[in-house]
Design a protein that fits this description.
The complex is a heterodimer of chains A (250) and B (310).
Chain A: E1 2-6, E2 9-11, E3 33-35, H1 37-51, E4 57-64, H2 68-78, E5 82-87, H3 94-108, E6 112-116, H4 127-135, E7 139-149, E8 152-159, E9 162-169, E10 172-176, H5 188-194, E11 199-202, H6 204-207, E12 215-221, H7 235-244
Parallel strand pairs in A: 1-4, 1-6, 4-5, 5-11, 6-10, 7-10
Antiparallel strand pairs in A: 2-3, 7-8, 8-9
Chain B: E1 2-6, H1 16-28, E2 31-38, H2 42-49, E3 56-61, H3 70-80, E4 86-90, H4 93-105, E5 110-114, E6 116-119, E7 122-127, E8 132-138, E9 143-147, E10 163-166, E11 176-183, E12 196-200, H5 214-220, E13 223-226, H6 228-232, E14 253-257, H7 263-266, E15 274-279, H8 286-289, E16 292-295, H9 298-309
Parallel strand pairs in B: 1-2, 1-4, 2-3, 3-10, 4-9, 5-9, 12-13, 12-14, 14-15, 15-16
Antiparallel strand pairs in B: 6-7, 7-8
Classes of the chains: A alpha/beta (250), B alpha/beta (310).
Chain lengths: 250, 310
């Protein structure tokens, strides 16, 4: 079966994000960009399925600006077979991305989509669930372990109090949690190979999807700063302060 | 204005975060209905009807809702949606799973994890692990929203007397099945609802070392948490993780032990009222946000602290 993995280009997780002084967003010019870490986990999982002889082809898809090609090349270097960029300069919100992905699914016919549980830029945690809804497929969010069992998929999910296991009919969407796997390192020979793998570019119009944003960001500001930094010399002082100053213990 | 709150519950009791979601709904203004979809969920229905400020409880009690599978649940909510201006869920694992599915079926955007209601169509939510706060306006016909519990003080569990109304159950879509739950057993309070949290980080050095935190957690009536580094190292279970991709907590007191203070961790706890940091590295970033820091060996300081607290 084919496996589809969406990948998002985001500000690298090591970058300390700065809010723009005009309050329109965060600074992304001249900032290191990388693949959303949860998408790396998704690609890794898809490749493991191929290595296990279950997946026949791994297709990486990104939606966004031309520079997302770099993110797709990374996906190809990890081991995806080919890539599709749905290219647009429009600000894409999760519902629009889910619609684009649905159109790609309709075209490509994968039986499984592995989607990162959230992107570390907007922290929305929506796209996988929305894609499943639009396709009418079952969804296994926050996947910790997946096992294909014939026409079914067993998914262990990370929930608030522990783990939960569901069995989904295929085709299905899963969203990757942090501990689904540990992605492999990309090797130089694989980076070279990735340059020769096919990368198709299509436009939202060609997929018949209206990607106009539905939500308006009115402003972006820095969070209130905590006034921390006080150090106490010993445990006695700490407990005294907790009792008399912070009044947080009896 | 009419708001539907999707309750997170286990058929018997409501999850605390449901009360924070109702609190957010109260700020949006308008009548508040709570949906209890479950199987054999009458106890949860009674609990919902008693919540302060709730006018109506909608009940779908059928086997296909017993396990809160999102496929059946979203289909049910979509059928009920037309009477509502807002559909609000707590941003728990349950709410995060079902809410976007509802939004997409309604062809509307979702606003995730709001921490403030500015007006009925405008909300504040953290982005980039809380490094920035975005004010977002929605012109959708139905606003689908998840609520971060730490942004809103829970409404009272009692004092309400809502009308209870049964709604027709939908078909079982039969595309997903629950086969089991392995929930961590603990006598401690639930991490996201605890008044005090004691968390350990990589500095603990081993899973065994977390035992040293237990007397402190016992004395403070605390839940126990951990940083991502400690979970990655296999010291403690995954569901202990506090941070951007784990639990978001805001207790009255957060005790960070052997935690350096990576931004991903701070994202999950920096709204705590009082933060204590215990770390041997006096340059650790956790000290910048801690109200009270103490530099030294945690294996010495923690037992001393327990003794001093008495």
């Amino acid at each position: 079966m084919k496996v589809l993995v969406p990948v998002k280009r985001v500000v690298d997780y090591n970058v300390k994000v700065r809010v723009k002084s005009d309050g329109t967003g965060v600074e992304t010019a001249n900032v290191k960009m990388s693949m959303n870490p949860f998408d790396e986990i998704s690609i890794e999982e898809a490749i493991r399925l191929r290595e296990a002889g279950i997946a026949t082809e791994v297709i990486a898809v990104s939606c966004g600006v031309a520079a997302c090609q770099e993110t797709l090349r990374t996906a190809l270097a990890i081991g995806a077979d080919r890539a599709i960029l749905v290219e647009t300069d429009v600000e894409l919100q999760p519902l629009a991305v889910a619609k684009l992905l649905k159109a790609v699914v309709d075209k490509e016919g994968p039986k499984l989509a592995i989607v990162g549980k959230q992107a570390i830029d907007d922290d929305c945690n929506q796209t996988g669930q929305m894609l499943a809804a639009l396709l009418g497929w079952p969804q296994g969010t926050f996947a910790n372990k997946i096992t294909v069992e014939g026409e079914k998929l067993r998914v262990a999910r990370e929930v608030d109090g522990g783990l939960e296991t569901v069995i989904l009919n295929l085709p299905a969407v899963i969203t990757s949690d942090l501990r689904l796997n540990e992605p492999r390192y990309v090797t130089l020979p694989n980076i070279m190979k990735a340059k020769k793998k096919p990368l198709e570019i299509i436009k939202p119009d060609a997929l018949g999807v209206d990607v106009t944003p539905r939500l308006v960001t009115l402003k972006v500001v820095e969070p209130p700063k905590r006034k921390g930094g006080l150090k106490v010399p010993d445990v006695q002082t700490l407990v005294m302060k907790l009792r008399t100053e912070a009044k947080v213990i009896e | 204005m009419s708001i539907l709150v999707i309750a997170d519950h286990d058929n018997n009791a409501l999850k605390n975060a449901t009360l924070n979601a109702v609190a957010a709904a109260t700020k949006m203004g308008g009548d508040i209905a709570v949906l209890i979809a479950g199987g054999g969920c009458q106890a949860a229905v009674q609990a919902a009807a008693a919540i302060a400020g709730v006018t109506k409880v909608l009940v779908a009690d059928a086997p296909q809702y017993k396990d809160a599978l999102p496929e059946n649940l979203a289909a049910l909510v979509v059928g009920l949606a037309s009477g509502f201006t807002h559909i609000v869920s707590p941003a728990t694992a349950f709410g995060k799973t079902v809410s976007p599915r509802i939004a997409a079926l309604l062809d509307v955007s979702q606003i995730s994890e709001i921490i403030e209601v500015v007006s009925p169509d405008t909300f504040v939510r953290p982005i980039y692990a809380g490094s920035a706060m975005a004010t977002v306006q929605s012109n959708e016909k139905i606003k689908v929203i998840t609520v971060r519990a730490t942004g809103f003080d829970a409404v009272a569990r009692t004092g309400g007397s809502a009308a209870i109304e049964a709604v027709a159950a939908g078909a079982d879509l039969g595309i997903s099945t629950m086969v089991g739950r392995e929930l961590t057993k603990s006598d401690r309070p639930e991490l996201t609802a605890a008044k005090v949290v004691v968390s350990g980080g990589r500095g603990m050095g081993s899973g065994e070392a977390f035992k040293i935190l237990e007397p402190l957690a016992d004395r403070l009536g605390a839940a126990m948490g951990a940083s991502r580094a400690a979970v990655d190292a296999g010291y403690v279970p995954n569901d202990w993780q506090v941070g951007q991709t784990g639990k978001i907590v805001a207790p009255d007191l957060y005790v960070a032990v052997g935690i350096s203070g990576a931004i991903q961790h701070l994202a999950g706890m920096k709204d705590s009222r009082v933060i204590i940091a215990i770390n041997k590295d006096d340059e650790a970033p956790i000290f910048e946000i801690a109200d009270y820091g103490i530099v030294g060996d945690l294996f010495q300081i923690v037992p001393e602290l327990v003794k001093e607290l008495g």
